[in-house]
Amino acid sequence: QVQLVESGGGLVQAGGSLRLSCAASGTTFSISNLAWYRQAPGKQRELVAAISYRGSTNYADSVKGRFTIFRDNAKNTVNLQMNSLKPEDTAVYYCNVASYWWGQGTQVTVSS
After folding, report:
1. Under the phi-then-psi rule, with left for phi > 0, alpha for psi from -120 to 50, and beta for the rest, what region is 53?
2. What is the pLDDT of residues 26-44, one digit of tens each?
3. E strand or H helix that includes residue 94
4. Reduced to 3 DSSP states, what percent helix, strand and coil does the chain have, rounded to the nearest 5?
């Protein structure tokens, strides 16, 4: 049974930073592609950032230069460092493993 537990969401002012973390168990984490998605109210879920099992990364245009995804295979975690946050980053953020398993989501709210 794969379990993903997210943490690190919260309320922050525009220009601030947050770090999201997703801890995985029950999966071959080190050979899995990982990603963070987000879903704002009334909008579709969108890809924010992804990191392959080899470590290559890609980002949505809207977060390039502000967000960084990184993984720690020894701890089975994938993290999202979010800097220079904007109100439009407000959403529920979900981690994803191997394009299949999803976390429960963590709320990020950026006030103006």
Report:
1. alpha
2. 878 888 999 999 999 999 9
3. strand 91-97
4. 5, 55, 40
